[in-house]
Design a protein that fits this description.
Residues 21-36 have a biased composition (Basic and acidic residues). Residues 1-37 are annotated as: Disordered. The protein is of the alpha+beta class. It contains ten helices and nine strands. A hairpin with a 6-residue loop joins β8 (234-242) and β9. α3 crosses α4 (99-108) and α4 (99-108) crosses α7 (137-147).
Length: 302
């Protein structure tokens, strides 16, 4: 991954719209279907999805059986796997999670059949329909009560996807972004290696700092390290890099105070970035941000 300032010999170009890639390329499925699989989904949305579940905090803390009661008949073998989760979860807990809180985290990371708890909950989030999320309120209250007791993510945590020009276009079109519910890994090496092997060299790596993320290692159905992200943290871009070798993008995102959204409606149309024309980044000693798009300048200065 390379980077160049204005004073270097490498040609600097505008990091705005990245060259087109196949639009039907989706992340391949890892063999273990664990933290790596969940970290191949981006936890970024222009809408604050925490507003969709406003009021879940008022739900009582109940057993896992009661929390998932609305989904019996929808999720295959749910009752059996609730028992598995309550048997296999990390309990007693050094962080004082109850068995049901620990099992709520465990079953979220379990995989069975074609569609499990994670898949059904993800479908509800993707709908952005409060009516579809409301049946999940009791489960989300139990889940949140558990992860609140876990350690905060103290370092940058990572997700990755195959390069997607639609994702980049959406970020440029609307600079206001928030975290969504998801998973991250503590380093990007495994994500990068997997995508390079199965989805091609051109990828998007996303690092997050100062967001509402908790280390769930030891509480999931996998032995691997995993961080769970909660929705609603406003995001800004701390750094934006494009590799001179293959055009891959690295975004370093940072949580921001949820202050009133500024408008950039007066901004001029963004110039286009030629594909694979050298590295770009925000930090330049001569003319800071001069080669950044208006979108990127706005986000980094939030």
């Amino acid at each position: 991954m390379g980077a160049a300032c204005c004073g270097s010999k490498n040609k600097v170009v505008q990091p705005t719209s990245i060259g087109k890639s196949p639009r039907d390329k989706s992340p391949p499925k890892p063999r273990d279907d664990g933290p790596l699989h969940r970290s191949l989904k981006v936890s970024i949305n222009q809408n604050d999805q925490s507003k969709l579940i406003d009021g879940y905090q008022n739900e009582p803390i109940v057993s896992l059986e009661e929390a998932l009661q609305p989904f019996h008949g929808q999720i295959d073998r749910l009752a059996t796997n609730i028992k598995v989760a309550k048997t296999q979860c990390h309990f007693p807990s050094e962080q004082n999670l109850t068995r049901d809180e620990s099992a709520a985290i465990y079953i979220y990371t379990m995989k069975w059949g074609d569609r499990c708890v994670f898949d059904h909950l993800q479908t509800a989030w993707n709908s952005e329909d409060r009516a579809q999320l409301k049946p999940w309120f009791k489960y989300l209250k139990l889940f949140r009560s558990g992860i609140n007791k876990l350690p905060d993510a103290k370092k940058e945590v990572w997700q990755a996807i195959p390069f997607d020009d639609r994702f980049m276009d959406k970020l440029e079109a609307n600079p206001v972004a928030y975290t969504t519910m998801g998973s991250c890994l503590p380093a990007h090496d495994e994500l990068k290696e997997f995508l390079h092997e199965h989805a091609g060299k051109r990828i998007i790596l996303i690092g997050y700092r100062s967001i509402d993320a908790k280390e769930a290692t030891g509480y999931t159905a996998s032995q691997s390290k995993e961080y769970l992200v909660w929705p609603g943290t406003k995001l800004g871009v701390a750094e934006f890099l494009v590799s001179e070798d293959d055009g891959s993008v690295t975004l370093h995102m940072i949580g921001q105070p949820n202050k009133p959204e500024q408008s950039i409606q007066q901004s001029r149309p963004l110039p286009k970035l030629k594909e694979k024309e050298g590295p770009k980044h925000f930090k330049c000693a001569n003319t800071p941000y001069s080669h950044c798009s208006l979108f990127m300048r706005y986000l980094i200065l939030l």
